[in-house]
Amino acid sequence: MKVDRRLFVNFDWVLLILVLLISCIGLLNLYSAGHNLTYISGKPLYIKQVYWILIGLLLMVVSASIDYHFIVRHGYVIYVISLLLLFWIFVHGNIAHGSQRWLILNGFSFQPSELMKLTIIIALTKYITENKIDDGYHIRSLIVPFVIVCVPCLLILEQPDLGTALFLFILFFSIILFTGVSRKTFILFATSSVLMIPLCWFLIKNYQRERILTFLNPERDPLGSGYHIIQSIIAVGSGGIWGKGFLQGTQTQLKFLPEQQTDFVFSVLAEEWGFSGAVILMFLFLALILWGFKIARNSKDMSGTLISFGVTMFVFWGVFINMGMVLGILPVVGIPLPFLSYGGSSMVILMTGIGLLMNVSMRRFMLQP
Amino acid sequence: MRERNNKLTQYDPGEFRRKLGALTWLVFFAFALLAFRMWYLQVVKGETLSQRSKNNRIRLQEIKPLRGLILDARGKILVDNQPSFDISIIPEAAKDVESIIKKLAYVCDESNVKFFRDFSSLKDRKPFVPVKLQRNISRDKLAVVETNSLDLPGVVIDIIPVRKYIYGEMMSHILGYVGEISDIEISRDLYGQYRSGDITGKLGVEKQMDKYLKGESGGEQIEVNVNGRKLDVLGRVEPVSGYKVMLTIDAELQKICWEAFQKKAGAIIVMNPRDGSILAMVSKPSFDPNLFNRGISNENWEKLLNNSLCPMQNKAISGQYPPGSTYKSVVAAAALEEGLITPDTKFYCDGTYRLGNRTYRCWKKHGHGEISLHRAIVESCDVYFYNVGKLAGVDKLAEYSKGFGFGKNTGIQFPGEKGGLVPSKEWKLDKRKEPWQMGETISLSIGQGFVLLTPLQLIRAYCALANGGSLYKPWLIQKITTEKGQLIKEFFPEVQSFIPVSKRNIEILNNALWGAVNEPHGTGGALRRKERDVCGKTGTAQVVGMPQDEGNPDMKKVSYKYRDHALFVCFAPYKDPDVAVIVVVEHGGHGGSAAAPIARKIIDGFFELQDKRNGSQSCEAKGKTHISHNVATEKFGLESLERR
């Protein structure tokens, strides 16, 4: 492949700097979150996270270098590979915390469901660019994308990982609605999702039902399922405006916070850096998302727009759902906070996704004469 | 190239741009929502939540003070503190509580386990606070729990200091016992000095001196982690140990009294006639105050309550007895002072005394013949005193009785004292609604009938005779010092009044009391030591009115509760007495045979101790006990662990 000089000229420094800044905040925060933990084996998590960031950056370079048209063209291949991985853990998965999510390869554990989030974006982009309909999608033309998202969702629900499955659906709807649907379809979507709610209530597992009840009233079981959310709210609130200071968060350092390195990592930041710190982080995320929208807008073709929009929404929903959960306005679902939660798969996949954004961003002038 | 251009022209980003514009607003809105929520939690509710985070991690722990020690007059420790061990479980840290309870099954009682289960399953229980499983476990069980502590997550051992009454039963009525404060005591606590769960004195010195002994609680602000484990001490207020209370009691003498009394029921008081301080005080039967330390078992409590010999009563200050012949000194004093008799006044005793159609007997069946005051006291002639009593009349006897401090509390700083009873015409009319009978004066003149005295009142009166007339307020608390020995409060002898008897008459009486012990046919012959230095008076108090005509029945044939009380009261040496002793043996029979031998042992023991102490340098011994006591308090934790 010929490397075009213009790729460097148009390199998206803003995107890279934003991502690096957020990742650094994440590292610092992770250092604090893991500060008082004793490690039975291996290195502290923030060191591991550095490795994951480096691997992620490497993959970012790779995914930025390969022309995204090439990637989209092979979207179904990527999708099938991801699906096979999911299926693989469905058969021989590694169980942790009562669910099968991890694939262990030479000591590296990997969550194919994280990969699926990105793969879905690519596969849907491929379908939509190849089946463009001017006046929006009808039900019949949505069958294929629906199947594309449903198959992995079912496998992920079996793990069980309700959060990720829901996340895939949210991405799916975001992209489809962004592309445009006919009015009839939109109404159908709306009514069927309302009707689905009671049905879901009976389909989900007991602990998931508990979580939702707890979300509605955390104090109903303060020592049991409400514990996480109560402790998280205490941590966030006790941070006040200026926070308790780095490594000074009592909720964090004394381990009152559950899952403080993964799903609840934001409460560590909010406790130690307060409202001011949390708002700064939110501004960085906002900037990243708006920058992603800008890339989508400036893309010279539809696949670029869709792929960059998808990745941006991936970040947005991750931030919104995770923060909403930590702040107690959304139920507890296992969605990590992008770039901050500890987790190799999530970090690597996000970096790869950012690579795709860069890819689109760098090639926005490529088709100009 | 054309194809490409085609595609380019086909792509119309306009629609997407419009949507992206709208989405930008949506994203702004979403972030605003998050920021608003964050503002609400961190700024609006920041203060409350910050407090909650402190409550999460900061726990206030009361540090109970060590209760003050109680020492005898020579600095010997009478009550110490020793550790007792409780087991608690933090349910959150234990994870599998049931399996831990199973592992601890041999350590705890079934009822406690049930209580624990009920409590730990309460929804509104404070998380991570230990729940008590079993109190007061034995040391071998403690050792097992400690060695297996790794298999028992969440199990906590609390060390709680409890009282150790070194002399056990021997001093229980003096020292008393302690227990958890009752609701009634809290409601009476006007100054808010007590809180529920506090340990307070329930009897004796522990009760009387509670405000000095209890000390002040300290507190510790500790930071805990999610498992309730103590991480750091944020602040600490040291508890102030209770003050040391030093008594006038002599532990060695107390032991002598205790042993002399053997298995009988009754009371002994040994008093210093020079100042009214109590050197020893025994009440029998007794109880073990150590039983009350961690709450007495129902079984033991029932046993104490149902015992007809009333082990919980301090008979020395609250037992009320007819004084019997020991009262004759008062009758004689009244008659002498009023000029009704002189030492030479004689009456004839043929063994009986007739009043109207009733006959009153002398204890000696065939009488004493013609007898003067001195011999009448020495041989305790009843008929002589019937005559004297009749001359004096009940109201004069009452007046002099009150002069000797009878009929009202002596004012000793000690709980539970009784006042006794001094009858008079007015009293009888008032209380019994009947006029006084002359025959009752006759009974009164030998200390029978209505009159009731406590052993404390009686010995105090005799001490007044011994010291030349001063009626001291009895006392047994000498001083109160801080743990380090700084003086807080000191008590001094206090003369309440003087007995209304002239020095000359006191001399006459004392001479007769000396004779009662040392002269031939003296009733107190049991006290006749080779030094011939004891003055004393026997007393035999009838419990029920024995038919006077039948003479003196053989006491061994009478059922226990109708037997006479035996009394003996004495002081020594005759000139300038050092010690006074009263022995009351309930239902013991004759004073001379039942009570006097006990008094003899005590008097002998007292002078032996005095000789021994004068021999070895007493000041040195005093210094030593002070030091060893300080060491004992400082090393409380370690030393008492070794002690068993």
Protein described:
The complex is a heterodimer of chains A (369) and B (644). Chain A has helices at 5-9, 13-33, 45-65, 68-73, 75-92, 112-130, 143-157, 162-179, 183-203, 206-216, 227-238, 250-253, 265-298, 302-326, 344-362; strands spanning 94-96, 99-105, 108-110. With 369 residues, chain A is mostly helical. A 3-stranded antiparallel beta sheet of chain A has the order 1-2-3. In chain A, α3 (45-65) packs parallel to α15 (344-362). By secondary structure, chain B is an alpha+beta fold. Chain B folds into 2 domains: 60-247, Penicillin-binding protein 2a (Domain 2); 251-288 and 312-615, Beta-lactamase, CATH 3.40.710. Helices cover 40% and strands 20% of the residues of chain B. In chain B, a hairpin with a 5-residue loop joins β18 (477-481) and β19 (487-490). Chain B starts with a helix and ends with a helix. Mean pLDDT of chain B is 84; it is low at 1-9, 547-551 and 618-644. The chains are: A mainly alpha (369), B alpha+beta (644). At the A-B interface, α11, α13 and α14 of A face α1, α2 and α3 of B.
Enumerate the spans of chain A where pLDDT stays under 50 for 5 or more consecutive residues: none
Q: How many strand elements of chain B?
A: 23
Structural class of chain A, please?
Answer: mainly alpha
Task: Round the Cα radius of gyration of chain B to an integer and report it.
Answer: 37 Å
Task: Sketch the major β-sheet of chain B.
Answer: 7 strands, mixed
Number of helices of chain B: 25
Total individual domains of chain A: 1
> What is the radius of gyration of chain A?
21 Å
Please trace the helix and strand order of chain A, writing H or E for each element.
Answer: HHHHHEEEHHHHHHHHHH
Named CATH architecture of the largest domain in chain B? 3-Layer(aba) Sandwich
CATH class of the largest domain in chain B: Alpha Beta
Query: Mean pLDDT score of chain A, rounded?
Result: 85
Residue fraction in strands of chain B? 15-25%
Q: Could you tell me how far the N terminus lies from the C terminus of chain A, measured between alpha carbons in angstroms?
A: 20 Å
Oligomer: heterodimer
Helix content of chain B: 25-40%
